[in-house]
Design brief:
Blueprint (H helix, E strand, L loop, with lengths): L2 E4 L2 E4 L25 H4 L2 E6 L4 E6 L14 E5 L5 E6 L4 H4 L7 E5 L2 E2 L5 H6 L7 E8 L2 E8 L5
Length: 154
């Protein structure tokens, strides 16, 4: 989305998600074509006035943050042990070409233990077109280092 206006606030170049029911099995039928949530609303402190059916927004420290996101071609999730696990590899992406696999455990990104990153700081490591992300991963066969060159996927 090129531009989204929320009252007096504007978010530009917004990336939205289009998920199928198979991707969100516990969500049920979606009465929409896509989801747009955290990519917008994490930028604001929100107050809901249910009696007036109003939502009030106040920009927070992330209000000016870029909407650019993961250019590595993989999605990660955090498991119950607190590990960062590759959940999905996008077909034809740099991650696929360099041999990342679903289930790989990412231990370091650019030399820093993933547990030392704040969530958005970790996300930023995969969001700079032309940049590189050096991953140290763990597999049953042993550790491996993979360097990804980041490029816009859409």
């Amino acid at each position: 989305i090129n531009k989204l206006e929320l009252g007096s606030y504007t978010v530009t170049n917004l990336i939205t998600a289009f998920s199928s029911r198979e991707e969100i099995p516990n969500f049920g039928p979606l009465p929409c074509d896509g989801l747009m949530g955290m990519g917008v609303f994490f930028r604001y402190h929100m107050v809901f006035d249910y009696s007036r059916k109003m939502m009030y927004l106040k920009p927070n420290q992330w209000a000016e943050r870029s909407s650019e996101r993961n250019m590595a071609g993989m999605e990660v999730r955090f498991n119950a042990k607190g590990q960062t696990v590759v959940y999905h590899i996008i077909e034809g992406s740099e991650a696929e070409q360099k041999g990342l696999k679903k289930g790989d455990i990412i231990e370091k990104v650019n030399g820093l233990d993933v547990r030392d990153y704040q969530y958005f700081d970790l996300e930023d490591q995969f969001a700079k077109e032309g940049g590189q992300a050096k991953l140290t991963i763990r597999r049953p066969s042993g550790p491996r280092v993979i360097t990804l060159t980041l490029k816009r996927l859409i």
